[in-house]
Structure formats: C-alpha cells, structure tokens
Amino acid sequence: MSRKYQRLNVWRGAMELAEKVYLITRHFPDEERFGLSQQMRRASVSVASNIAEGSGRGTDKDFVRFLYIARGSLQELETQLFLSSRLAFHDELEKLNQDVDPIYAMLNNLIQALKGA
Questions:
Q1: At CA 33, angle to CA 29 and CA 39, rounded to 5?
Q2: Which of 92, 75, 100 is nearest to 17 (CA)?
Q3: With contact defined as beta carbons under 8 Å apart, do 73 and 50 qualify?
Q4: What's the DSSP call for residue 47?
Q5: SS3 string of 56-112?
Q6: pLDDT tens track, the chain, 117 positions
Q7: What's the CA gap between 78 and 44, in Å, rounded?
Q8: Are 8 and 51 contacting, i.e. CB atoms less than 8 angstroms apart?
Q9: Which residues does 99 contact at the CB level (< 8 Å), separation at least 6?
Q10: 11 membership: H or E segment, kind and range
Q11: Are 73 and 62 contacting, i.e. CB atoms less than 8 angstroms apart?
Q12: Would you state the pLDDT for residue 91?
C-alpha cells in the first residue's frame, strides 16, 4: 500500500538524490568512510525521511516544520557536495546540483502551499 508521501514528487526526487549520493560516496577515499561520506549519506537520507515523517504528522503546521528540516538537510548536503568536489572526491557536482535545485524548489512550493500563501 502506498502512503501519501510516496506520491509526492519532492519525496521521489529526494530518494533518487540519496541513492546517487550513496553511489558516489562508495568511491570516496577509505579515510572518508566515517567522515564526509557518512555525513553526506545522513544528510541525503534526512531529506526524504523528514518529508515522510512530516507527512505522517497530524497537521499542516507540523508537516511544514519537517519540510523546513528537510530543506536544511538539503542545504547541508549541498555544502558537502561542494566540499567533496573541491577535494576532488568526485566530478559529478554539476549533475548532482541539477538534482538539488528542483528538490529545493519543490520543498519551497510545498511549504508555501501548506502555509496558505
């Protein structure tokens, strides 16, 4: 049975982004296994997880609060993507940023819709 959040394009996009983050961090240096790699994985999972958790809350106000948390995690991940690119751990920054931007926009749009703006 599909839950309401699973039908949200923003959740689907966040899941795809998390999958991509897991795939690229597999190739990070071994010394980053418990450093930047884990932080990036946690941040990417946090985006989709907070969308799902907020959707399961009883009110739009609670949902919005979790969407703000998801947006913060997305910005955290974006910073980590920039850093990992600057450290030459991967060369997929542009491609991944093309995934980040629409998720950020969808989060903002959903927040505004739920706030009644």
A1: 115
A2: 100
A3: yes
A4: H
A5: CCCCHHHHHHHHHHHHHHHHHHHHHHHHHHHCCCCCCHHHHHHHHHHHHHHHHHHHH
A6: 457 999 999 999 999 999 999 999 999 998 888 899 999 999 999 999 999 999 999 899 999 999 999 999 999 999 999 999 999 988 887 888 889 999 999 999 999 999 985
A7: 9
A8: yes
A9: 13, 16, 17, 20
A10: helix 9-25
A11: no
A12: 86
Predicted structure pTM score: 0.92
Q: Give me 57's structure tokens.
A: 């809350």
Q: Which residue has the tokens 């309401």?
A: 4
What does the pLDDT look like over 33-62, one tens digit per residue? 889 999 999 999 999 999 999 999 989 999
- Residue 28: which region, alpha, beta or left (left: phi > 0; alpha: psi -120 to 50)? beta
Q: Which helix (H) or strand (E) holds 10?
A: helix 9-25
CA distance 54 to 88: 35
The span from the CA of 30 to the CA of 82, in Å, is: 19
